[in-house]
């Protein structure tokens, strides 16, 4: 793996949900994200994305446009963006104005990742998307949004997104379904597949490549794959750190949504064989281990699916351990050059 955009190697990037771990707060989670973004910039990661989630006790990243602006201020060269803004939740005009403004302040560094999910539990649907609102299709909303970034002179009487015209961030389509892959391909946009949410969706990259139609902004397909990785100085230590994520998943499957627990608490929990099999299935895409183990598993993913970029998300309780995991992954990337 390498981190050059020009030598055909695989880039390394970061996806950060700003996790609120057990005993912490949203404020601390956001401060950790600011710190991690600056650290990732210094380590040489290519881009840093934050998502849009609503009414989720364990996630502080709810307003990506605001958070992206803060992250752009504390970093120097890394690209920053949304992973992603959930387009059906918003007016395309407002998104264009927000991200056009960000691009104006930080030219050439802003990404606009776009998804179609709700971004929260079903009970929050009416608060996120008010009933009775005019709902266009995702494709219609996408065309409207991208149109606001055009530099050409608007026709009289049309609505314009003044900060957006001529200040276009790099749009991406996010997804885990053939429909999202085909939409990105037909629109001639980059595509991000969420392996960390669905480890069986890697084949969508081939669907995307086969259907891709060149556009003004993108002549050839560009893709990334988001992957969950927990790296430590030994396989045993990494597995211990991963216990937090496994316990959180088990609790969710039992109907209890908890914040990420400490690895100490997770280590004290006894799993039945059935529970362990279930959790193993739901974490089958999670890459856990020391540097050599992580390198081998990432290389296998790259060989199988050929993404242009690996975007790493790391569900670890202690912030220092999380920083350390990203340091090890960055080292893996440098060693591969």
Secondary structure elements and pairings:
Elements: E1 11-15, H1 26-43, E2 47-50, H2 64-74, E3 79-86, H3 92-105, E4 110-115, H4 125-128, H5 138-147, E5 170-175, H6 178-187, E6 191-194, H7 204-211, E7 223-231, H8 235-253, H9 263-267, H10 273-282, E8 287-289, H11 291-305, E9 309-313, H12 319-335
Parallel strand pairs: 1-2, 1-9, 2-3, 3-4, 4-5, 5-6, 6-7, 7-8, 7-9
Helix pairs in contact: 1-2, 1-12, 3-5, 6-7, 8-10, 11-12
Describe the overall structure.
This protein has a single domain (about 10-335), classed as TIM Barrel (Alpha-Beta Barrel). Helix content is about 40%, strand content about 15%. The protein has 12 helices and 9 strands. The chain has helices spanning about 25-45, 65-75, 90-105, 125-130, 140-145, 180-185, 205-210, 235-255, 265, 275-280, 290-305, 320-335, and strands spanning about 10-15, 45-50, 80-85, 110-115, 170-175, 190-195, 225-230, 285-290, 310-315. It has an 8-stranded parallel β-barrel with strand order 1-2-3-4-5-6-7-9, surrounded by 8 helices. Strand 5 (about 170-175), helix 6 (about 180-185) and strand 6 form a beta-alpha-beta unit. Helix 3 (about 90-105) packs across helix 5, helix 6 runs parallel beside helix 7 and helix 8 (about 235-255) crosses helix 10 (about 275-280). InterPro entries: Bact_Lucif_Oxidored (IPR050766), CmoO-like (IPR019949), Luciferase-like_dom (IPR011251), Luciferase-like_sf (IPR036661). This is LLM class flavin-dependent oxidoreductase.
